[in-house]
Design a protein that fits this description.
The protein is an alpha/beta fold. It is built from nine helices and twelve strands.
Length: about 230
């Protein structure tokens, strides 16, 4: 596996600090000062993870993330001075794996990097699993979901949540269970992140009565994938 981590930020002081910490962790930092350079170096060096600032010259971080998501599911952690929920939700919605607000602790950034990369360390056998239910197929290896044969456009996190629930029909997952399984036990977010992803997942799927399955809310607990036996 590649040991390159791409760090894209137009602030030289931040680049220097993150360069030092990433190097201490045994990775090879690749630096970019704007969005255009970030895209060029992403395809040139094939990093294992991106630390991506939102507000950059030429091309902003959101556009960089969307462009990369057209061809790759490599983990992306977005870094920004904007801490409002709208920017955070937008970053997650276009496929970012995590979101860090400036000012930040370099130690916190490294903890999140470790958490994201641990989730990639899944056995090949497990990653090849394809979950099928009535009209539904989830391929976690290729991050593809089809409903009645038609591809459904979901973010990386939405697919991971959906696959986890559908792989365990009838099992109730608390919000903390889903946070730890999908985002990692060192994720600093809260349960609202899970609720937001479930809401968007339901909206995109438009689950109808023709299917014998549904994503059910267990009030006060969490969620489960329910299969109706008829």
């Amino acid at each position: 596996m590649s040991k390159n981590i791409l760090i894209a930020d137009d602030n030289d002081a931040i680049l220097e600090i993150l360069h030092r910490y990433v190097t201490k962790e045994g990775f090879s930092p690749i630096l970019a000062h704007d969005g255009k350079e970030a895209l060029k170096k992403f395809f040139q060096f094939a990093p294992v993870l991106l630390l991506l600032d939102v507000m950059m010259p030429n091309i902003d971080g959101f556009e960089v993330c969307k462009e990369i998501r057209n061809s790759s599911n490599v983990p992306i952690i977005m870094i920004t001075a904007k801490g409002d929920d709208g920017d955070r939700i937008m970053g997650l919605d276009i496929g970012a794996d995590d979101y860090i607000v400036k000012p930040f602790s370099p130690g916190e950034v490294m903890a999140r990097i470790r958490a994201v990369l641990r989730r990639l360390d899944i056995s090949e056998e497990q990653r090849k699993d394809i979950v099928r239910h009535s009209g539904l197929e989830i391929n976690i290896s290729d991050y593809e979901v089809t409903l009645t044969g038609q591809p459904i456009s979901l973010t990386k996190k939405e697919i991971e949540i959906f696959w986890l629930l559908a792989s365990n029909p009838g099992k109730v997952f608390s919000r903390d269970n889903l946070l730890n399984s999908v985002w990692g036990d060192e994720y600093f977010g809260d349960a609202r992140t899970v609720d937001t992803h479930i809401q968007r997942l339901r909206s995109k799927l438009s689950i109808s009565e023709q299917f014998n399955w549904d994503i059910k809310t267990i009030w006060g607990v969490g969620y489960k994938f329910e299969v109706k036996h008829v």
